[in-house]
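Quick one:
INPUT:
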């Protein structure tokens, strides 16, 4: 008997879902996880991103725009998650069947499945097998059923909204005769040579109205000093036989030649994992970054096919027709790396990288953040401590690879930045609405009128400062509001379950204020020094199997946070190190523990407090 092909095996396993009853789903699901460990990595948003990329590779299509398709996926996931969580603005879809108690993971799975089944129906058996395997791990109850309904409804409504948007429309490219600056097939441009995805230049954007809205300005005149400098730089450093570059420069050039449809998603997933985002925040981050990438690519493609600009390999081989006496023809010149099959201006890598970098800046409120990339082309890893070094390397890589002029890279990044900022604004809070929501939430708390009035007064003061443009005072008062809620929890006036939704919502408002400060060029200091020690009640409580414990220390201390059973036996050490002043949260996973009452104790040199938690399996 022949060994079963790994490409065929998922389909065989998936088919067994149809033949075996529901009682066998979990067994088959576990088998899939053993054979295909990438089916589940831990975060459902990231998992479905990886699955989508895998399906794209299983169904090659040269006319597809892989990164643009991921925008559809993550918009549906985000709106489905937000329909349940409700802490952020709707992006496109507000499903009529939303409820706040539905299972978030089920909504993610269902929305993702519906989008992928619509786009990649030829691989529907595999997609459904992954979906069933992931759903089998969720509780078999009404929350899961409702979450799946919300996810499916959101995706169906979004697909309907996008119907006729121009995705993969039949738009042929018409070649123009060789002339000054006119795009031509590039080496190895042997027939049939078809430029990539002309339809993408006319695709309806995801966040604005027209594909030409952020079109790049006209490229430099062929007789300009800017073009001359660009020409001579790429000619000197970007050729296949140049002696002007170092091995490090050539490694950088090749590092960024991996298929972007694989390279970009893998590295975004890796970066997101390094930030330890919640499911809700991950859904928002992936949606924000892929909408930015998608709309930046649409804008870049609109620019490319509008200007139809020649590549360096054509320009250098035909410099005798550009009308510029400062450029010299070299008919044998070849680029170091293979030139992609689309017009030169602006650079697609600049467009995408600009969208990524400035989305990260807006989402995390700082440009100074560690970004680590890997490449399967070179087998190496590059780490950057800020977005600017990352963007500089991208531009250098395209010039040193002989594929682009530097101005094209710079203009591509500018498109990415402009689009990323536009998209970030679409995902941010309307501060006034958020404050109004919080005031309403305060009125539902089991507090006396004096305590409610104190909280409400702070929120009204936040709004007044914000409307006056005094963002830092507004942020400080918002933090005072959070501190007061924590005090109510510590003195027993509120439970952690009652206070936590308001605290989470307040932190989202602070993030929105920080984002506005960043846009104004202000340095954002998000570190708030607590007034005193605090150990908050874990949330949720009871829990199964994961809960979050929050604590604060007003100065630098050696901190231990440990969990004990009812007999006083230590069952987990969560923190055991020196900590600077600040507020912290720790995730406690009790997967290996049995149901029951446990205690967690925070201890420093000058503070000890113990609280009870309940594990209910």
């Amino acid at each position: 008997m022949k060994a079963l092909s790994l490409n065929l095996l998922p389909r065989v396993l998936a088919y067994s879902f149809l033949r075996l009853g529901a009682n066998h789903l979990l067994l088959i699901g576990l088998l899939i996880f053993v054979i295909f460990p990438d089916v589940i990595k831990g975060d459902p948003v990231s998992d479905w991103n990886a699955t989508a990329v895998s399906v794209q590779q299983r169904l090659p299509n040269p006319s597809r725009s892989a990164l643009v398709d991921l925008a559809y996926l993550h918009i549906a996931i985000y709106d489905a998650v937000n329909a349940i969580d409700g802490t952020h603005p709707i992006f496109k879809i507000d499903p009529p069947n939303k409820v706040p108690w539905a299972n978030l993971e089920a909504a993610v799975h269902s929305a993702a499945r519906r989008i992928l089944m619509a786009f990649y129906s030829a691989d529907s058996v595999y997609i459904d097998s992954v979906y069933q395997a992931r759903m089998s791990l969720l509780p078999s109850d009404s929350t899961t059923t409702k979450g799946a309904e919300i996810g499916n409804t959101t995706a169906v409504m979004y697909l309907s909204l996008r119907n006729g948007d121009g995705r993969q429309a039949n738009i042929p490219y018409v070649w123009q005769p060789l002339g000054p600056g006119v795009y031509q097939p590039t080496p190895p441009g042997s027939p049939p040579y078809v430029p990539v995805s002309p339809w993408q230049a006319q695709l309806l954007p995801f966040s604005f109205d027209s594909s030409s809205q952020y079109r790049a300005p006209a490229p430099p005149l062929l007789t300009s000093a800017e073009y001359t400098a660009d020409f001579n730089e790429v000619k000197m450093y970007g050729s296949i036989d140049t002696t002007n570059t170092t091995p490090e420069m050539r490694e950088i050039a090749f590092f960024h030649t991996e298929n972007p449809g694989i390279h970009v998603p893998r590295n975004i997933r890796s970066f997101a994992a390094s930030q330890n985002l919640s499911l809700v925040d991950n859904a928002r981050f992936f949606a924000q970054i892929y909408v930015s990438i998608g709309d930046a690519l649409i804008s870049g493609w609109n620019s490319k096919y509008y200007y139809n600009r020649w590549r360096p390999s054509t320009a250098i081989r035909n410099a005798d027709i550009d009308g510029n006496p400062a450029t010299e023809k070299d008919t044998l010149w070849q680029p170091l790396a293979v030139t992609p099959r689309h017009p030169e201006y602006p650079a697609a890598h600049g467009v995408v990288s600009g969208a990524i970098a400035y989305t990260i800046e807006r989402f995390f409120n700082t440009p100074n953040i560690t970004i680590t990339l890997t490449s399967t082309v070179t087998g190496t890893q590059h780490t950057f401590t800020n977005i600017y070094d990352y963007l500089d390397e991208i531009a250098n890589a395209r010039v040193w690879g002989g594929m682009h002029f530097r101005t094209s890279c710079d203009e591509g990044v500018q498109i990415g930045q402009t689009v990323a900022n536009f998209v970030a604004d679409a995902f941010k809070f309307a501060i006034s609405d958020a404050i109004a929501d919080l005031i309403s939430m305060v009125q539902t708390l089991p507090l006396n009128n004096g305590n409610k009035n104190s909280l409400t007064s702070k929120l009204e003061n936040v709004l007044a400062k914000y409307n006056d443009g005094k963002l830092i005072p507004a942020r400080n008062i918002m933090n005072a509001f959070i501190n007061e809620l924590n005090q109510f929890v510590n003195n027993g006036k509120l439970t952690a379950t009652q206070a936590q939704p308001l605290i989470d919502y307040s932190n989202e408002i602070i993030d929105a204020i920080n984002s506005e400060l960043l846009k104004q060029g202000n340095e954002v200091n998000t570190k708030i020094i607590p007034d005193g020690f605090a150990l908050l009640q874990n949330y949720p409580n009871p829990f199964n199997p994961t809960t979050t414990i929050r604590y604060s220390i007003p100065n630098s201390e050696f901190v231990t946070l440990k969990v004990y059973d009812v007999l006083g036996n230590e069952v987990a050490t969560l923190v055991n190190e020196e900590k600077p002043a600040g507020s912290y949260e720790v995730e406690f996973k009790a997967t290996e523990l049995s149901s029951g009452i446990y205690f967690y104790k925070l201890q420093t040199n000058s503070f000890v407090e113990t609280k009870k938690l309940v594990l209910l399996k």
